[in-house]
Amino acid sequence: MIEGIIVNTLLKGGVYALLAIGFSLIFGVARMLNLAHTAFYMLAAYALYTCTQLLGLDPVSSIFLSLVVAFLMSVGTYSLFVLFRLPSIVSIILSVVIALLLVWFGTGFILGMGENVPLTKAIILPVVFSIFIAGGAYKLFIDRVREHHVTVLLITLALAMVFQEYMLLVPAFGGHYLGAPSFIPGYWEIIGVKVSYQHLLTFGAVLLVLAGVWALLSKTKLGIAIRATAQDTEVANLMGIDVSRILLIVMGIASALAAIAGVLVAPTLVLEPHMWTSPFVMIMAIIVLGGLGSIKGSFVGAFILALVEVLVVYLLPQGAFLKGAFALAVMVGVLVFRAEGLFGIAFEEEKL
Amino acid sequence: MFRRLLKDFQGDVLAIPGRLIALIFFLLLFLFPLLTQPIAIQPFLLRVLTFTNLFVIFAVSWDLVSGYTGQVNFGHALFFGVAAYTAALLNTHLGWQPWVTVPIGALAGVIAGVVMCLPALRLRGPYLSLVTLAFPLILIGIIFAFTDFTGGELGISGLDRISESRTVDYFISLLVMLISVFIMWKLTDAKSSLVRTGIIFHAIREDEITARASGINTIRYKLLAFAIGGFFAGIAGALYAHIMRIAGPSTLALTLSFEAIIWTVFGGIVSIYGPVLGVYVLYPLMELLKTGGIYEWRFLIFAAIVILMLLFMPEGIGVWIRDKIERQCPRCKLANIALRRTCRACGTSLH
Fold first, then answer.
1. How high is the pLDDT of residue B192?
2. Pair A151, B310: CB distance under 8 Å
3. Confidence class of residue A131 from pLDDT cuts 50, 70 and 90?
4. How far are the Cα atoms of A63, A154, B64, B65 from residue B260, in angstroms, in the given order?
5. What does the angle CA A234 – CA A240 – CA A245 come to, to the nearest 5 degrees?
């Protein structure tokens, strides 16, 4: 049983770490709680399903394609909704690109995959969707919603809802429970626990990506700039760092991390439009536990909460229902004793 | 005495268009069952408006905790759900009547508010929001784990009705809503000479350290805000359980917490009329979309409306309308109708 707990913790914790680090990066640099983060994880998983099941591509090219699609969609949406500090030409080009991408994506899905779908619905739906995104974006560049914190939060939440409902409306996905095939079938026995190759692949890829992120953040000039911006945006700006460029890059990295997580776990999960909510809650707990904006904290927090989850499932009756409750209770408990999380920095002006 | 009341009424209600509109709106709500008598779907409309009234209480109580006091609460559904489950358990197991269970449910909401506030006292900003988010989710986990007592996913059903007819249900919810909203409006009124809470809540939101430095026991007032919020959300939750005749996990769901935020921000945060307007626009709209032929599109339409409204009116539709119809006098800070060129009290030019 102990072996099972260890192996499962590592597998789960890795995926959580990927998602939480992306979220944490965005919070650190943009000071914004991005509730749509895991929606892009869902999008990536669906993109993978489309590529392998509906388009019949081979695993390698479908992984690549779905990563690219999810990445473009998330960066495009972020740049529209959040980064309205960009020069207007860039933003207009980005909004056109994202609109075209959505129209192509949506119409293709509905025409190619749905059965007996009227042509009008197939075209109107993506067009309305993208006009609404592009139109909203246009207005956003003028109105500075950024100052209204709760408003930004609500917009990201509404975005996540839009994606969820979009997936429900596409007939090929609908409200069905879907599954993508493993990249490599079969399993391997490690210390008496059966671990499928898919899980191993996921874990290996997670480690690789995390190592890459760590190297980027600690060794490169860009990484130093990112961390400096996260520490103090104004001073970083005074030091000659282009803060809006850093913001865009961080959004890109975070979206890529979410997309990678989504593609990697898609074969091991049931795909449904509400699949973004349960990791969303866990990630919230993880980053609060680790300390908002702290990369190390999110990494450690991910494994701690994964361990709690796995322990509860293994040891308690009805554990599957209680795992979230216990993980959240651990978070609340830690915060009561350490108000800034495990590795969070208590900023002087934010301290009480 | 009577003449003075009349004068106050003229000066404080009739002269301010926002209040006049609110008065007419509430009068229309009282006449609503009468006015819609000939319409075939009247029972449905009454039902929708009954729930609208309850959610108004819920949203306004969120605004009191998070808008006025600035403790952004992501788990407001906890108070609603705790009260709903308390009322349901007392009613089905002990057979207590609604007029007992609803106040006890509200008290349970107060207790939930105080319990949630205890870790929240040390936390601020996003930490506070995320910790409050955790509480209802923890409770949902517990409810799912002990299904024989709590009913699990199906919830507790078969509660006593509040009354025999939908019209009476409607009037009860309307009255409770009016009284609750009035009390919360008075409690948050920064200009009030009777209660200090309004100005202190504002002070805590604007700058907690300064508030503390000026001798305000901020901890006590934060606890008070959570307790008041819990109380009114609890009333709404317990009434909801009795009118719906079921208390299920949906009363604790994340969606409900976020709906309170969406309604309030949509209408205008840090204003009592904002959440009232937000709920009265958005909730019936969602219910009507449910019945139309575009059932599956409703969330998309909802999200689109919310995003577009927030982009065009980031302060909320209520504040936007108020700024259009009212103008504050630069000298005596008195609200005037936007048509006037000079202030009605001091004659200063408003342009």
1. 77
2. yes
3. very low
4. 39, 11, 12, 12
5. 80
What confidence score (pLDDT) does residue B51 get?
A: 93
pLDDT at residue A89, as a whole number: 53
Give this complex's ipTM.
Answer: 0.75
Q: Of the spans B44-53, B284-293, B323-332, which averages the highest pLDDT?
A: B44-53
- The three-state secondary structure class of B254 is helix
Burial (CB < 10 A; 0-12, 13-18, 19+), residue A143, is: middle
Encode pLDDT of A254-283 as tens digits: 878 888 888 888 777 777 777 877 888 888
Q: Does the pLDDT of residue A115 top 50, yes or no?
A: no
Which residue, among A220, A81, A52, has the nearest Cα to A141 in the 3D structure?
A: A81
Nearest to A80 by CA among A32, A38, A134, A23: A134
pLDDT, residue A116, reads 47
- Please give the structure tokens belonging to residue A55: 């388009």
The shortest C-alpha distance from A110 to chain B (Å) reads 16
Coil, strand, or helix at residue B156? strand
pLDDT at A300 over 80: yes
Instruction: Characterise B347 by phi-psi region: left (phi > 0), alpha (psi -120 to 50), beta (else).
Output: left
Angle of CA points A250, A38, B247, to nearest 5°: 145
A324–chain B Cβ distance below 8 A for any pair: yes
CB spacing of A166 vs B125 below 8 angstroms = no
Q: What is the CA radius of gyration of chain A?
A: 20
Residue ranges of A 12-71 with Cβ closer than 8 A to chain B:
27, 33
* C-alpha to C-alpha distance for B23 and B32, rounded to whole angstroms: 14
- Specify the 3-state DSSP secondary structure of A333: helix
Contact A290, A299 (CB under 8 A): yes
A177: left (phi over 0), alpha (psi -120 to 50) or beta: beta
Read off the pTM: 0.81
B261 touching A (Cβ < 8 Å): yes
Structure tokens at B91: 């009613």
Listed residue (A164, A152, A208) closest to A27, CA to CA: A152
B346 CB-contact burial (10 Å; exposed 0-12 / middle 13-18 / buried 19+): exposed
**Between A and B, how many residue pairs show a Cβ–Cβ distance under 8 A?**
136
Distance CA B53, CA B191 (A): 27
| B205-208: Cβ within 8 A, 24+ apart | B205/B68, B205/B69, B205/B70, B205/B270, B206/B70, B208/A352, B208/B70, B208/B124
Burial class (CB in 10 A: 0-12, 13-18, 19+), A349: exposed
